[in-house]
Amino acid sequence: RQIQKFFPIKTGLFSKVTGHVHAVDGVSFSVKKGETLALVGESGCGKSTVGRSILRLFELTSGEVILDGTRIDNLSAGALRPLRKRIQVIFQDPFSSLNPRMRVHDIIAEPIRNFGLESDEAKIKERVVYLLDKVRLPKDAGERWPHEFSGGQRQRICIARALAAEPELIICDEAVSALDVSVKAQIVNLLQDLQKELGLALLFISHDLAIVEHMTHRVAVMYLGRIVELADRTELFSDPKHPYTSALLSAVPVPDPEKKTTRIVLQGDVPSPVKRPSGCHFHTRCPEAIDICKTKEPKQTILPSGRMVACHLREV
Ligand code: SF4
Ligand code: MG
Question: Which atom of ligand 1 is nearest to the CA of 312?
Answer without folding.
Answer: 5
